[in-house]
Amino acid sequence: MLVKKYIFLFLVLTFSTSMINSQPLKYPVTKKTDQTDTYFGVTVADPYRWLENDRAPEVESWVAEQNKLTFDYLGKIPFRNQIKERIEKIYNYPRYSAPSKHGDIYLFSKNDGLQNQAVLYIQKGMNGTPEVLIDPNKLSEDGTVRLTSSALSKDQKYLAYSISRSGSDWQEFYVLDVATKTKLKDSLAWVKFSDASWKGDGFYYSRYDAPKVKDKSLSEKNEFHKVYFHKLGDNQSKDQLIYQDKNPLLFFSAGLTEDDRFLFLYGAGGGNGNSLYYKDLTKDQADFLPIVTTMDDQISPLDNIGDKLIVHTVKNAPNGKVVLIDTKKPEESNWVTLIPERDYPISEASTAGGKIIITYMKDVTNRTEVFDYNGKFENEISLPGLGTVSGFGGYKIDTDVFYAYTSYLCPTTIYAYNINSKKSSLFRKPEIDFKTEDYTTKQVFYKSKDGEKIPMFILMKKDIALDGTNPTLLYGYGGFNISLTPGFNPVTLAWLEQGGIYVVANLRGGNEYGEKWHQAGIKLNKQNVFDDCIAAAEYLINEKYTSRKRLAINGGSNGGLLVGAVVNQRPDLFRVAVPEVGVMDMLRYEKFTIGWNWASDYGSAADSIQFTNLYKYSPLHNIKAGVEYPAILATTADHDDRVVPAHSFKYMAALQDKYKGLSPTLIRIETKSGHGSSSTSKRIEVNADIFSFIFYNMDIVPKY
Predict the structure, then answer these.
(1) What angle do CA 11, 13, 15 make, to 5 degrees?
(2) Fewer CB within 10 Å: N-end or C-end of the chain?
(3) H-assigned helices in 391-497
(4) Dist CA 634 CA 651 (whole Å)
(5) Which of 557, 618, 648, 679 is catalytic?
(6) Which of 380, 336, 344 lies closest to 360 in space, CA to CA?
(7) 557 is an active site residue
């Protein structure tokens, strides 16, 4: 009887799954207008321009109708709740950040497991008792207020910290008295893309003027980023303006050397890197003096030795190098190379205890080495395995620093490294409800369309059969110098344990092989990224990892653009596609918030040659009628002020209008969330819905 019961349940679930797409969904009718634009003699229709006004009543009505359809659809998936419960269970383990050390004070964050936000703790001494310093979970009832940054003053008396609400990039800065744990009256608004850098009784930070129309604060173009100094106790209106520029489309920030001698001004947004200016605060210097005036290359001071600067840069060294710059003669011709460029790139550089600590990336995994201030190699730090490390920064007097290690099958683990003994010791290791030893990570290299060798990681069960039937999820990004290095994600485990294969393709446009790899995937070379992704899908199918009927593609932000473009070009390769918070309108992306900053990677529709290139692959503009598209679930959020939701709104409106097949084309619009999920609970919910949608449209019933 028991056997019959389970056979019956399986048949019911299989039947309900296969029946879901037996007839086309009835989509809300989206109004079209006669809006057109002309680019260099080419007329481009934009009938859904009205959806860009995401706070308008008619757009809110459209959102409500779309969400009703989507959540009605998702609600019919019989195993949706089981997937969510399983993700919650796997997710429920303590997660720590690497501590930052300030004298005898240690700061670190911890999430007990399912807390919506990580809590900031303070403890005295390495073995002291941790105390809660800031618990952002108490700042809102729904857990959508997030702690975005924190900075301890040099005397350790005050903590400047920032929060964001509902996932927005806008920040609010406050100050905490560390001893009493009480919030002071200081309150700073309209801060964006900024940390606090302490100097004496105040700190430097960057912000914009208040939006002209507050209701458009999440979509209005951000212009004239300015640097201010805030003195403790003052009203924000009294803050001293340190720097503003005539060019409205740039970012600026300020930072100090450890000894407070040099104040740096960083400029970004005008290229692939940053400019660098400085003031010597021991002198009567009115203006910032230049070190690098262009924004073509990354340059970052690590420390100073008197009036000389130790600097990490990629200027004339695409893979990175460390140089010594004399502020008395800062011209590049006078730079002294301390650590020369190698065949593989630097992924992170820092200093601590009078040492330079360099983390390299070789075939998308990290190696870390220690050098003295003259650039002499001292030792390699023995890491737990081939994975990703971060941390190592500290002060000159420190003898111990901390770093975090992770891989696809190893949760983030914290280690303490002693500079004198040159040895690491385990500091904190999490325990999870999952047998990672039953799974394996494999790195393969495949050829793209032009013959370039592309690396790719494949996660799967050790005993899995490569018979072409495995549900496979391909993830990619490919842009903005961002490398997809191995990292643990508990959500992925819920996919793997159902016999799924999870794949990460290291597409061009990232920094996996340095600036040359990045340049090979931007602007007029952007098609390389799509070709790399298409070749990855073909490899997985040809090598029998999966088949077209069992292959899904996923990516977020620039990765959402990737999904949209690739699905338009090769819809035959995928059964399911999930573009998250994607950049879908390549002709108008510059019109919103900080979209103008992406022209360094994408190019601009204001240029005739770049317009032609953008128009050729723009996801919104290349949806075709009469094409059999995969099942598509686009996701966005109402407080995404990085890639505004209008991108996904217009894309989905066009897709629903042109596609007439059986595959669902749905959009999931989260509330009180932003470019990334604003809380743990929302993160779990959206991932549960994504997995449910994928399994459902692959006719697969997860086993629980």
Answers:
(1) 65
(2) N
(3) 490-496
(4) 9
(5) 557
(6) 344
(7) yes
| Rounded CA separation 82/610 (Å) | 47
From the list 356, 238, 229, the residue with the least C-alpha distance to 281 is 229
- Selected catalytic residue, list 217, 675, 677, 678: 675
Q: CA-CA distance, 410 to 148, in Å (whole number)?
A: 25
Give the integer Cα–Cα distance in Å for 549 and 467. Answer: 13
How confident is the model over 259-276, as pLDDT tens digits? 999 999 999 999 999 999
* Exposure string over 603-621, b if 16+ CB within 10 A, otherwise e: bbbeeeebbebbbebbbbb
- DSSP state, 93? S
Handedness of CA 219, 223, 225, 230 (dihedral sign): negative
How far is it, in rounded angstroms, from Cα 330 to Cα 701?
A: 64
The overall longest dimension of the chain from CA atoms, in Å, is: 90
Q: Which residue type is seen at 410?
A: C
Q: Is 675 among the catalytic positions? A: yes
Render 337-359 in DSSP notation, one character per residue: EEE---SS-EEEEEEETTEEEEE
Phi, psi of 372 (to 5 degrees): -85, 180
**214 pLDDT tier (thresholds 50, 70, 90):** confident
- HSE-up (13 A, CA, CB side) for residue 239: 25
Kindly report the backbone phi and psi dihedral angles of residue 653, in degrees, each rounded to the nearest multiple of 5, phi listed first: -60, -45
Q: What are the two backbone dihedrals, phi and then psi, of residue 401, each rounded to the nearest 5 degrees? A: -130, 165
What mean pLDDT is predicted for residues 81-108?
A: 97
Measured between alpha carbons, how far is 342 from 157 in angstroms, rounded to an integer?
42
Residue 370 near residue 422, CB atoms below 8 Å: yes
What gap in Å lies between CA 332 and CA 686, rounded to an integer? 49
Which two tokens mark 39? 């680019």
One-letter amino acid at 333 equals: S
Q: Are 519 and 525 in contact (CB under 8 A)?
A: yes
Q: Is-contact 194 268, C-beta < 8 A?
A: no
- 109: tokens are 């964050």
